[in-house]
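[job 4417] fold queue: 2 targets
>>> target A
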Amino acid sequence: MSADRLKRLIDETDATPEPADRPLTDAVIAERLYRASRPTRYMAFLFMAGLFAAFWHTLQGWQMALCFAFNLGGTLWFDHLRRRFASRPDPFAAADVWTTRFALASAVTGTGWGLLGWFAFAPDNFESQLTLGFAMCGLITLSVLTRSVHLPSYYTFMAATLTPPLLRCLIEGTPGALTIAFCGVVFVIFTSIWSHNAHDRELRSAALRLRNAELIHEVEQARAMAETARDLAEDNYHRTLDSLQNAQRIGNVGNWDWYAATDKLFWSDQLYRLIGKAPGSMTPDGEAFLALVDAEDRDRVTERLKEVTRSGTRVTAEFRLKPIDGETRILFAVTEAMQDETGKIVRIAGTLRDVTQQRDYENALIAAKAVAERASRAKTNFLGNLSHELRTPLNAVIGFAEMLTLPRTGAAGTPRTAEYASLILTSSRELLVLIDDLLDIAQIETGQMELKSETIAMAALIAETAAQAQPALEKADCRLEVSGGGGDIRGDAQRVRQILATLLAETIRLSPPGNRLSLASADEQTMLRLTLTSEAPLPDIAADTALLHGFEARVAYHASDLGLHLALMKELVRRHHGDLRSETRGDGTALHLRLPLAGHA
């Protein structure tokens, strides 16, 4: 507190209440008035009885009774007002009303003393007048001590008490009476100044007490809020700690912290469990923990910890623990150092996670993958070898079947023999196509298929492919119209021809009798777009419904069709950086094949 502030408090110039506090201050002063007057309130009757005895020769019985009635009535009314004031739920709500009534009660009490001064005044006895004057001065002095805290009560009491005897002095008009009256007025002025000073002190004291009460209330509120906040913080802390422990237990993760300031090490409960110990069963210690690490991994873990303290960066390590109950656990550790603004390490924190089961799963997965890869390679090699092995005898079958169909070599010479030879030749050729597809797929899976890069005149290739499809069109009772042009593309001509032939063959095979097909080609920015339109609805052969994956082949459109040529066609389109999609047009279907133009491949 500053010296100037302290001086103002000592001088009582820094404690004047604000106007808004005045009603409350008046209520406090009224209560102080009641308490200050309590010791002398009923002792005044003894004082009045003494005056009755001193002036019995000048007082009559009814006069003493009237004085006593006013004094007793005012005193009892004052007590009644105080009880009503104290019994209200909010006694400070109408403090100005109660203080006004207290002043009126003081006036009633003072009237009893004033009547006593009027009745006891002896006109022809100066000594009696002087005695009465001293008695009134003593009464006013006592009133200053008790009623000056509330000036309205003091002034009403003083006016009611002194006015009658002063009037008697003035009416008498003798020099002695006038002298007593003059001295009484001077005494009243002096006591009034004294009362004002006492009232100001009481006013400042009440204001300070009110402010102290407000501060105490604020402190109690702040304390209650602090206790509530502390309870809430403790509750949140316990809930967070419980949630963290549950999360660590479920995730099988533990943590540890080391604080440089105190050189203390902390382990979570789950860390104890990870190393096979009960929580709190041992004092956290770095050396004791390293002793639990497998001997082959201990030096590496130690070096990683040293790296954290040297570089202050995050490091990770995976290590094994010594067998616990016959089981070797694998832990994965993450360690990080926290530094202050000067770069000094103030804390090192780390987590440990049990990855034993995860590593078992990974090892099992790696082993299964190796087995699957070996099986896939064996399957692919088997398909390649099988295709080569089948082609050799099949070529001989096809050759002899062709010889049997020739007229000059028809040994049997019968039409049935020629028909059987033709069936053998057709089936053998279909089998050869299937074997070629298998061989191509095997080459794709083993990465042995290489595509040539050459310029392909698509107009000629489309016309050639359409001409080759005429026998199939006639057999299926379908028609094909070829239109449009288009630029050249870059790719493998044999494989592009295979794409077009497969696309036409599948479309013709799935078409109903009498279906009309159209094949149009046109340049589309950097791509050549081929659109094959069918007036009849067709299955979506562009969808991935017949792709091969390993040994798995799904039936595409017929139970007897493995869809190998479709899978091969789509793979060839992809390898030429093209795409194939299907579109429904009215009641028909359109297939869109796009291949990059030369110079954009």
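>>> target B
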Amino acid sequence: MHKWKRYRYWSIKKKLLFFSVLFILGSVFLASILSYSRYTMDFEQQSSEQVQQIIAQVSYNIDTYLDDLFRLTLSPYMNDGVMQTLEEDVQNSQLAQLKKRRFIDNYLEEMMIYPRKDINRVFILTDEIYTVGRMPISVDYDSRFQEFDWYKQAMNTQDSIFVPTHTQQMVKNGGPKVFSIVKQLRSTRDTEKILGAIKVDANYNGIAVICSKVDMGSGGGLFILDNNRNVIYRSTDRLNAVSLFNQVQASGKPTMTINQSGTSYLLNSTLLPRSNWTIVAVSSIKELNQKATETRNFGFFIALACSLLAFILMYFFVRRFLAPLLHIVKLMREVEQGNLQVSFPAHRNDELGYLGTSFNGLVSRVREMLEENTQLVKQVYEKELLQKEAQVQALYNQIRPHFLFNTLNLISMQMQTGKQDKAIDHLHKLSSMLRSMTRMDKDILLQKELDLLEAYLSIQSSRYEGRLEYELQVDPALHDMPIPALLFQPIVENAVIHGCEAKRGQTRIVIFGEKTASGEVLFTIRDSGQGMSPETLQKLRGKLEQVQPDHPSAGDQNLDSASRTGTGIGLVNVNKRIKLKYGSGYGIKVDSVLGQGTAVFVLLPETGLGKE
């Protein structure tokens, strides 16, 4: 609450600069963050689509590679000599067996000239095991290949069989890890006759060459796994390929986002239907958005620089724009200190120019009134003119500056708190009141006094920001009744100052006016302020009773005493004016209860004619 009060009393320049910079920075940073979020979302989607296209191309290349291996199993059918040799029965001749083996071995060696270095070994399995490989290895010619599942499967279908990752078979001491393509071989003369099978063993070098062309960045990787979760290919050891594969299988989606160890990854996957392998591509979202992050940070830097430049420009603009207004506020402070020789150079045609002109007129009028008041008081007290009309005129002119200074204080406070519209409105009201007072005689109609009270209370209600409520309940039949000018204003002002100003909560002021049964008119000004203690009330009643219409010097002493104590000057003034005007039978009475409020009763004759 304390900070908020301090903010309320900031200068207009400070508020304008603060909110201008706040709005500029807020809008720029909000736009940058929203743009970054939208850009990263779109970029991640585009990246996902691009990666999906890349692994689809990898899948196509691997399928093409496997198709080459499948076509390699058909090569015996392209050589009639090989097929005839395979069909020959040479069990009874060792020489024929030797020739058959040499012929087939020579054919297989020609196959191994094939530039694909990923082909590890080729087997032709008929009555014997015929094989050639790139690397020398001991072949187990006594191996019962007929018992392998892949051989039995090949014997039951004419389609090529894909054998997943396994240790190379039909060799001694174990071979390397390979995958194989197996194809049933049938006689070209009798298609119903099965001669055996051809088996091509291949390593993963060809697949590695295809996958190595795909760059998933330093934070990502590319993996190929089979259904048994064997890792066929991996581009990095930093990531757990099996864990990623499990998450892909669990989601059932080709694209997903995961979080591992505080890092977000984008997963793309596709299935190779021929081999039943799964390709998993992993992209680091942080790495994908690195450029976007750099662009965002650069945007923030530019926003700060632009905001600083805007602040500097706004500072000079606000300083120049508010210079006239701040000058008026400065002049008002000088007026508060009693300097009425100030003047605003009003050479503008806008609202500030009008405000300056009104201010000059107001100060000029106050200066004239004070000069008149000073001159009149000087005449009264120097020449000791005790006539009633002279005393009334002196008191009347003493009250007006008191009211004007209070109103000027209100307008000054409104100017300082940035409420220019209200200040201008109150200047209008004050100017209207001054014009009315300059045309007033010593007696005015009650309606005019009520209009002035309405304007005054409206200004004060604005000053206290709604804490002050007021109501005028005067019998309309009394509106044409003549009364001394500014008779009730000091009483109402006293209720505002000692009632509303000293109280934090709501304060209500009600003004009643009615005829009494005895032919007089009673006005009551009641407030719900702090009220007075019995001791303070007793002192005030004593001051009011000491005022005698035939002894003005006593009243003056009371005024001085009231001024020194800070209590009752307005009430004493009004009471003296009434008694000077109408006699000692009329005047003011006060009733008050501490903590509940104060009531001031003003008794006047019905006709409003004072006795001479």
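[job 4417] complete. Note on B: The CA atoms of residues 62 and 224 lie 11 Å apart.
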